[in-house]
């Protein structure tokens, strides 16, 4: 075809070579055509899809990558006829036994451990090859985290793997990390401690059971957030037709897939929270006349400390909907990492204390040292007394001498030797400040001609019981053209206060009718949320959505992150007047000097 006209015909004489750039596009065209033909045949009643229960959608075929699954009536003759027809048309043979599909079992047998034995074999194959190489423990840790623990990840996202299988993999990993070239060595630290976070004295290896639950919780999150997807509709029709995935029962004779997802339901519920937008789902607690909380009703239902926190949750002023968010991420979206740490916390119940925080700070500084990985692992083992010293060998191997081979003294601590070798006097005179890069001087810069730059600050007063709103706007000449100072009672997080003040800054620009504005703040988290295209599902989500909606009214609206030195006027205004005040060029005396300094710079 050329210009819509046909010129002869083209007869292909050979197939495409491997890697031909046309191959993916031709494959997509053929797949779409095949899918359309199957859909047309189903609509005409020539084939009938499969429905797992009454009310569930019928499925005639599924496509994934280069695989196609066709579902039809449970008739051996019909299935065989389809296979023979496809084999004759395409010139391929029929595979009678397909045990794996996309690396996952196509049929679920009684022995789940043998069903997923291929995962164990793949792990063992990798470790066997690495045992022939001379690797440090730091290098082994990298291989374990990046390769070994990634092998079962895909299967974990669909099924709950047997605990016995995961323990086998844990044992393989532990033997590989401690042993050396197939020589069995002493495991000085348990595998559970190796799986602890680096800030808690571990190496950050994964507890595969809890990681499995986190991966399954991710599927529950997708089902909840995307109810129109095929998987969501199928599972809803079978297991929770009148409810939600939050409290869906296990049901009668459930499939292995649903059993696996149901095992992660407790973790999923523990991490989800309702996010208040316009309050449509909690109308009984909302004063319909004001669109805010009904303080009398809230105070009568909840304890005073809870009622105070609830009353300080802001509503969206522009009608954003209520939705479910993930509590353990800053943006309110689910992440496997946060779900995994939540599962560990629910199992081991970590405690918090001053000594614990000091310990975490020590570990953080140790792992951040600019040293080779094998040296840091040695320091880690020394700190945990996990080195083969004479005293430690005596505990494991009776009859071993407890006398130190270096000083010929008994029961001398390892760190005493380290302190004599690494004497502070040798390295205490190093000037660490010489290693730091010089900081460039930072100052406020005026906006372009015709634009207005707005700086703001959100301080907290009286131990967090009062919120401060401080906004100042300046033109291209650096002169103040408007400012706002407000102090209201309430409790909120610092991030929420920053977002509320940013909304007041935009409203100030709307009231004055400015068309081009630049909003600056030294809060990287808030500015990042205002500049991203994704919906903010965190606590400040309703406020940031209001800001972005208001920003569409300007011809130009930019949110910029600056250093604290560039926001000095807003900080000075934050320390000035209390109550409510708003003005133009008549700036408060407390900020006159900082404004003048910005003009001079």
From TrEMBL:
Domain Reverse transcriptase zinc-binding: 334-411
Gene Ontology molecular function terms on file: nucleic acid binding; RNA-DNA hybrid ribonuclease activity
Pfam families in alphabetical order: RVT_3, zf-RVT
Database matches in InterPro entries: RNase_H-like_dom_plant (IPR044730), RNaseH-like_sf (IPR012337), RNaseH_domain (IPR002156), RNaseH_sf (IPR036397), RVT-Znf (IPR026960)
Lineage: superkingdom: Eukaryota
RNase H type-1 domain span: 455-577
Identification of the protein by name: Ribonuclease H protein
């Amino acid at each position: 075809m050329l210009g819509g006209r046909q010129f002869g015909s083209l007869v292909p004489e050979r197939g495409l070579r491997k890697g031909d750039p046309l191959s993916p596009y031709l494959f997509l065209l053929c797949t779409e055509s095949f899918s359309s033909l199957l859909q047309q045949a189903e609509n005409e009643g020539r084939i009938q899809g499969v429905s797992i229960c009454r009310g569930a959608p019928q499925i005639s075929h599924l496509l994934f990558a280069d695989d196609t699954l066709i579902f039809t009536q449970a008739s051996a003759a019909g299935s065989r006829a389809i296979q023979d027809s496809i084999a004759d048309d395409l010139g391929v043979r029929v595979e009678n036994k397909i045990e794996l599909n996309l690396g996952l079992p196509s049929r679920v047998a009684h022995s789940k451990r043998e069903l997923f034995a291929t995962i164990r074999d793949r792990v063992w194959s990798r470790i066997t090859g690495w045992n022939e190489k001379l690797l440090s423990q730091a290098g082994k840790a990298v291989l374990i985290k990046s390769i070994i623990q990634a092998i079962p990840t895909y299967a974990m996202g669909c099924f709950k793997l047997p605990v016995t299988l995961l323990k086998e993999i844990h044992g393989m990993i532990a033997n590989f990390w401690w042993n050396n070239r197939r020589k069995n060595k002493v495991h000085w630290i348990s595998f559970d401690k190796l799986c602890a976070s680096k800030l808690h004295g571990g190496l950050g290896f994964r507890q595969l059971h809890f990681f499995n639950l986190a991966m399954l919780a991710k599927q529950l999150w997708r089902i909840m957030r995307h109810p129109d997807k095929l998987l969501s509709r199928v599972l809803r029709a079978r297991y929770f037709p009148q409810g939600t995935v939050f409290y869906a029962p296990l049901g009668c004779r459930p499939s292995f897939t649903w059993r696996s997802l149901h095992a992660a339901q407790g973790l999923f519920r523990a991490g989800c929270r309702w996010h208040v937008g316009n309050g449509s789902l909690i109308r009984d607690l909302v004063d319909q006349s004001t669109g805010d909380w009904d303080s009398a009703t809230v105070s009568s239902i909840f304890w005073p400390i809870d009622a105070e926190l609830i009353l300080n949750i802001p509503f969206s002023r522009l009608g954003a909907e209520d939705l479910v968010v993930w509590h353990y991420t800053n943006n309110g979206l689910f992440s496997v990492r946060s779900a995994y740490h939540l599962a560990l916390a629910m199992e081991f119940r970590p405690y918090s204390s001053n000594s614990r925080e000091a310990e975490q700070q020590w570990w953080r500084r140790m792992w951040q040292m600019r040293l080779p990985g094998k040296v840091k692992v040695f320091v880690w083992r020394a700190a945990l007394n996990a080195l083969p010293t004479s005293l430690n060998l005596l505990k494991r191997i009776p009859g071993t001498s407890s006398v130190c081979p270096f000083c010929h003294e008994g029961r001398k601590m390892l760190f005493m030797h380290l302190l004599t070798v690494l004497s502070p006097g040798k390295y205490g005179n190093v000037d660490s400040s010489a290693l730091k890069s010089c900081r460039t001087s930072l100052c406020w810069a005026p906006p372009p001609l015709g634009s207005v730059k707005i700086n703001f600050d959100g301080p907290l007063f009286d131990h967090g019981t009062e919120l401060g709103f401080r906004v100042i706007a300046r033109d291209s000449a650096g002169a103040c053209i408007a400012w706002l100072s407000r102090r209201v009672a309430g409790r909120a997080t610092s991030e929420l206060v920053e977002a509320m003040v940013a909304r007041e800054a935009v409203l100030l620009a709307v009231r004055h009718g400015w068309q081009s504005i630049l909003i600056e703040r030294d809060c990287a988290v808030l500015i990042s949320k205002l500049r991203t295209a994704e919906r903010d599902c965190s606590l400040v989500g309703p406020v940031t959505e209001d800001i972005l909606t208001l920003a569409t009214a300007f011809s130009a609206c930019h949110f910029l992150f600056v250093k604290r030195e560039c926001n000095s006027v807003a900080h000075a205004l934050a320390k000035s007047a209390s109550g409510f005040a708003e003005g133009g060029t008549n700036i408060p005396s407390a900020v006159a000097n900082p404004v003048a300094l910005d003009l001079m710079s």
